[in-house]
Amino acid sequence: MTTAQATSSPAGDLGMAHLGQIIAVASGKGGVGKSTVSTNLALALAAQGAAVGLVDADLYGPSVPGMLGIETGKAPMMSPSGKVTPAQAHGIKVISMGMLTDDDKPAILRGPMVAKYLRMFVLDVDWGKLDFLILDLPPGTGDTQLTLAQAFPLTGAVVVSTPQDVSLKIARRGIRMMEQVKVPILGIVENMSGFTCPSCNEVTHIFHQGGGAEIAASLGVPFLGAIPLDPAIVDCGDEGRPLVIAHPDAPAAAVYRDIAAILSGRVRAAAGIPTPFDWHWADDASKPKPAAHAANAGGATEVPMALNRRDGRTLALHWQDGHDQQIDVRDLRLACRCAACVDEMSGRAVLEPTTVPLNIVPTRIWSLGNYAIGVSFSDGHSSGIYTFGQLRGMVAAEVEDV
């Protein structure tokens, strides 16, 4: 993760409080019903009185508009503020690549354009005041997942799997990826868990049973629920009326409502410094605010509570466990682990220390999700990612206060 390229357009002071809790719905593989879960979960949260937005972040295979009966291929309207007006369906607000292209027109996008569209879908849409913003991610652990984890302070992730062993094993990879970028795992959902008889609503387990709960227990993450496979889901998706709207009494709809209730009571703001931020070093413009909660001896070792410019050449950090640290900014530049400074195959440093000016200083420091910072230096270098774990591990002197 540390060798990836840092974004050159940090989130900055974007005023994202109006987006509420940002929850990613992810899966290790395709075909597990993740978009169905995202859509019905968003509607279940809205039915409980929450203001909900839904981002269809699967740019290559958008399916949410069809599930909600939203017209595709028609350019969305613009608000007076110059932002995109989201579609509205069944009480939630929605944005999707499917709204911008025809059904048979593929989205042929390289990585930088993927990042651009994802940022637009979150930041350039007139969401209004939300309680929850649900991100329906594509399957896997690639560009989209990393872009969102770096660009936005995700509240947490819900991981969707099916009862089959192969799906559960791949779900582990998705969980581990989220853990690496410090996105809390809100829980695992086991989809297609049993078959709901269309005549009597009785659920019969035709696949393995209990795999989702077992993997959740083994990884130490919550198990949110098992959603049975209901034939009505297909018809509901084709008709643009999801299950929780069309068949609120179905067993699967009841599980969605239960999961929504669990998430409503579980999600909370992060305890560290508020993100995102884009701090200009020379004049302290947009400096990150300190965390609202006080540090304590039992706190986490890799959660920063404050960042400060101790002097022109020293970055000072205060951690949740009460530890104070200061790092010389030239040492920070020498510690860069990007592909230009470290050989990715061997891990051998290729940066020659003598090429780094003695008077080098940062120009900007910005947040990368919940797990790292990016730094732009006066020598023009800006591609490094410094995880909180890496920063905490750097040799540093104790200071009296920060």
Keywords:
402 residues; alpha/beta; Rossmann fold; NE0471 N-terminal domain-like; 2 domains; 9-stranded mixed β-sheet; 4-stranded antiparallel β-sheet; disordered N terminus
Per-chain topology:
Blueprint: E1 21-26, H1 34-47, E2 52-56, H2 64-68, E3 87-89, E4 92-96, H3 111-123, E5 132-136, H4 143-151, E6 156-161, H5 165-180, E7 185-196, E8 203-204, H6 211-219, E9 223-229, H7 232-239, H8 243-246, H9 251-266, E10 278-280, E11 304-311, E12 314-319, E13 324-328, H10 329-334, E14 362-368, E15 372-377, E16 385-387, H11 388-393
Parallel strand pairs: 1-5, 1-6, 2-4, 2-5, 6-7, 7-9
Antiparallel strand pairs: 3-4, 7-8, 10-14, 11-12, 12-13, 14-15, 15-16
Helix pairs in contact: 1-9, 3-4
* CATH fold assignment of the largest domain: Rossmann fold
Question: What characterizes the major β-sheet?
Answer: 9 strands, mixed
By CATH reckoning, the class of the largest domain would read: Alpha Beta
- Overall strand count: 16
How large is the count of helical segments?
11
Look at the structure and give the mean pLDDT.
85
Question: Tell me, what's the shape?
Answer: globular
Poorly predicted tracts of residues = 1-13, 397-402
Calculate the terminal CA-CA distance, rounded to whole Å.
Answer: 29 Å
Level of helix content? 25-40%
Would you identify the CATH H-level superfamily of the largest domain? Answer: P-loop containing nucleotide triphosphate hydrolases
What is the CATH architecture assignment of the largest domain? Answer: 3-Layer(aba) Sandwich
